[in-house]
Amino acid sequence: MNKIFIILSVSLLLLLGACTKEISNNDSFTVYTSNALNDTAWLKIIQINDPIFALADSIFKVDILKDSIDFEKDYTFSFGDSLEVEVKGNSLVTGTGLFLNGKAKIEIIRLQRKGDFIKVFRPNSSYGTLLETVGGFFIRISKNGTELFLAPGKTINIKYLDIEAPKPIMQAYYGYETTPLPLSILDTANNWIPNGDTNRLKPWSQTNGSIVKKGYILESKKLRFISAAYPLQNSKPTTNIYAILPPNFTNKNTLVFAVFENNRTVLNMPSDYTARSFKVDYIPIGSKIRLVSISKVGSDYYLGTKSVNGVGTSVNYSFTPQKKKLAQILEYLNSL
Amino acid sequence: MTDNQFDHFFREKLKDHSAPVPDGLWDKIRAEKERKPMGFYLSKKTGKGLFVAAILAGASLVAYEMNQYNPQIKETTNNIHSNSSNQLSTLSDNTSTQKISTDKNNSVQQNTIYQIVYDSNSIQQLPLINTSTSQAFLKPSNIEYATESNPSLMNDENASLSNYTASNHGTGYPISISTNSSNQQLSMVNKQLAANAHVSKIKSIIICPTIRGKSSSFNSEWGLEVFASPDYAFKSVSPNTAPQQYIDKKDSSEQMQLGFSAGFRLVKPLNDHILLKTGFQYSQINEKFTYRNENEIKTTTVITLRTIIRSPGDTIQVSDTSVLQQIGYSVKNNQNHYRSIDIPLTVGYQFGNGDWNFAINGGVIFNIASWYQGEVLDSSYAPVSISKSNNSSYKTNIGMGLYSSISVMKKINENTHLFFEPYFRYNLQNVTTEQSPYHQRFHIGGLAIGLKFNLNR
Description:
The structure holds two protein chains of two kinds. Chain A is 12% helix and 43% strand. Chain A is mainly β. In chain A, the strands form five sheets. In chain A, strands 2, 6, 7, 8, 9, 12, 13 and 16 form an eight-stranded antiparallel β-sheet that branches. Chain A has a five-stranded antiparallel β-sheet with strand order 3-4-11-15-14, with no helix packed on it. A five-stranded antiparallel β-sheet of chain A has the order 19-18-22-23-25. The longest helix of chain A is centred in the first third of the chain and has 17 residues, at 2-18. The N and C termini of chain A lie far apart (89 Å). In chain A, 36% of the residues are buried. The model of chain A has no long low-confidence stretch (mean pLDDT 86). An eight-stranded antiparallel β-barrel of chain B has the order 3-4-5-6-7-9-10-11. In chain B, strands 1-2 form a two-stranded antiparallel sheet. Chain B is of the alpha+beta class. The longest helix of chain B is centred in the first third of the chain and has 22 residues, at 46-67. Chains A and B meet through helix 1, strand 1 and strand 17 of A and strand 3, strand 4, strand 5 and strand 6 of B. Strand 1 of chain A pairs antiparallel with strand 6 (314-352) of chain B.
């Protein structure tokens, strides 16, 4: 009889096993280990193969004006009615000081809006001093791939119309580069260096019928990055500000900028590894700024913005980037 | 005289006694032996064999029942004893020869006529007419007789010896009885007859089959089986309009699991071996549907604590709540159920010894209704729900199936058997409609476990 009960018990267990429980909603989630979105680690030192380098290259979508010049003749090139570039004859030499004959290729990138400085990753500060920049240029002249320079004492005159009324306090700044274009657009050590004299930029105007357009005459002693700017004079105290993003956005894949609303100033916010955030110093309290983050996670782009009406009551600003198409991000940058 | 002495006397007297058996019994036994092996073996003369087997089985059952002490058997024994006593009542002092004649149906000693010879010291019983081939002799012995059942016979123990010539009972042989022991002899005869009746109560009784015993012709009993079964379904899928790639994907996303059936069956034995069964059962096939959803984003709210420096010497802790996104794949598990209500109709052949019975069954299962619930992959390999109402791919009736099983039954008590019945159900139709992009069919194997109740007791 005991055997019967054992057999019966085992059979009942089998039968109960047949009454399988509902296993709906018993979903399991497994993270892709190699997917960039799941990489939430921060780096103390950014490497050249980290995503932000690809991100900088991706947003480096600017118009490059190209033409050719004769080494021995004076030439003035007009690009539309808002830009004229005058290059004197026999003003170009090689890196070793040699004058060349024939023709050379000239490439000009015009930086007019705040978004342009973001796209070329040239924030507006000089040794930590905030600059208001009313225009900038990247001018590169080369012959057969060899980049040329202005001969000592020679200048290149850039006349351009500005989108705002000219300010008489502007002066020339030259770009300091550690990884010059076209090697990489992302030069985290870039800087703007004052011209070294106290000369202000002369105004320039164009009359088209009854319409008068005004701008600047930028007489530059150097090629490559040139800008017209002046240091923001501020008597207010300054503070550090932090941009805090979700863990998916790290210093490996995200660039953050502080865009001043009332000035033509864009600042890069380098990463603060300790605080796992992005930080910039010397922001005048009460400044009205907009924080802009651009991220590239895998093949996806993210754009994050945060408007700050007055810096000072709070110094840490959290916002969540949203996935965007690259064209949308560029369009946004062009609107700044 | 004690009871032991009395028993010893008869044991000594009857130990070599043999009784005739009915004509043809040995032939029947031999036929039974030639039916080996038992079980599924059927000789060429199947009908005769079954008939003989049925008789033997009936006889065995009766013999078995005789061994069981129950009121019915006791009543029969009392009748036998009564007949013997009635016969004894014909004896008188003037009767020197007696014919012990009992009902032919009662005892194997029925046709034996004994001559009992009395003398002063011994008693001899010699056979006068023996219609059987065997003979029995009561050897002389000096025994004191004492019985409580017939004390009157003991009162004449000291009577003088006299010779009586009894009017013959047809044989003409005289019976000589010494007068001084006649009462003892009568008492002994009475004891012997009582012993005969006692022997017949124990063994050596052939009981003719009763109406119930003629079970090979018809059995009026009904039974009820209540069962439940763990099932495992064997699924076969083939493409209809779907590409083989879809079939492969579907096959990899579905995994059969244990299902179950439960129901009841009415059992009608046509005879001791042939059983008809029909009833009602519910079956459920369980299937695990597993779907891997790639590139799924999982969001988790996280709270981070940071130390930030507002200015040199001004450090604060900042708590921030944000959302962490993770990408991966999720495995979605769902349980698909394929349910059906069916009516089985089976015929079985049963054999066994009553305690353990075995049967093989075969028949058909008629589907009454079927419905399905769960998820399947659609043509784009995305999971789509199917339900009883939202379903065009699965039939609501899958028609007829074939059924076969083997039963093992253990008797629990007179009315109840526990049975185990491994079975296999072969469905003749697909569960899918013609419009379905694939053909799908289930065959089910299971182990029905249940109780069988005798409804006639």
